Amino acid sequence: MHVKILANEFKIENFVMRATPSMRTYKFRLYPTKLQEEAFEETIETCRRLYNSMLADRIDNEPGYYAQKQKLVAMKNNDKYLRRVHSQVLQDVVLRVDKAFARFFSGISRFPKFKRRGRYKSFTYPQFVIGFNLDVNNVKLGLIGRVKVKLHRQVRGKPKTGTIIKEIDQWFLALSVEQSPPDQRVSHIPIGSIGIDMGLSSVITLSDGTAIANPKFLKQTGSQIKLLQKEISRKQKGSKSREKARIRLAKAWRKVRRRRDDFAHKVSDDLAKQFSFIVFEDLNVGKMVHNHSLASAIMDSLWGKLRRLTVYKAERRGGRVLFVNPRGTSQKCSGCGSKVTKNLKERTHICPSCGFQVDKDVNAARNILNAGLEQALAETKPLLVQRRRISKFSQRSDKLLALR
Description:
The chain is an alpha+beta fold.
């Protein structure tokens, strides 16, 4: 079969990379007291007002990052709320504004927006020991004190930053650490390659025939969410009852989100453990969700999250993930390479040329694997023709030399 031929020519060992230091984030639940929770809320509100002030200053006066840090010192002298917040937390707010503009100018995100109340939900201590510190059951936060934390797993690595995050009625510590994995882990990496086709009925279909069904978490709680949305629409804006209904709806969505995250983490972890070379189809999920008839189903299938999680987990184990153009993968026969036209309702691939018969998604996954192996093989081979960069200046100099 075509897949076996490419697998024989291509050595997967070439792409088993040695582990390098990387950043990893741990998320732990916090249990603050009433006074500490009030301090968290006040800190978030102060950071939100500072963010909006720095954003307005950037828009009107166009100062740089260091110029705004100098302005922050003068602002603290005239604002008692700023003096109640740790200095490094305030400096991180200025850094967030700078990063927001950097992402905008690089084309990653849109122009930075002002944060209204309820849209700013975290603050960061950017330096370990000085800003925050960890104990057995507590985290010590500058100007706030010791807060109870549940460290449900061992922290491996050197802590760098700590971010306090509010999720509706719960608080979390996102601990960013720098890890240096031992080289022994690389030798235990399973050698194998797999192609993955993304779908709606099955979240993923592997080139070896394995299919993982879509759990459809949104469909399971969709009726409850619709009732809560109707309940909010009946409440008067600005009333306490509307706020309570909003919180109930947010908790329902949080339940769906957490179930999706748990599913995506488990599937991606299994893929990274079993295979060292993984090939996905390069789908533009951002544009596909603009189709309102399929947006809900695509978001519930976790295509984007599953790919992101698989990438970092595979690379952390020394593996590699590639993305290939999905065009024509469902119409091409993975046995002989001939084109077999099929509509969306046909679920079985039957090739009239070679007689190869298999599930349509499995056939597409094998074609995706083939494309990934060909791409990886082309990267390992040297170029047959040495390419020379030619600019208009070099062409002009050649003409001048010819005239002489």
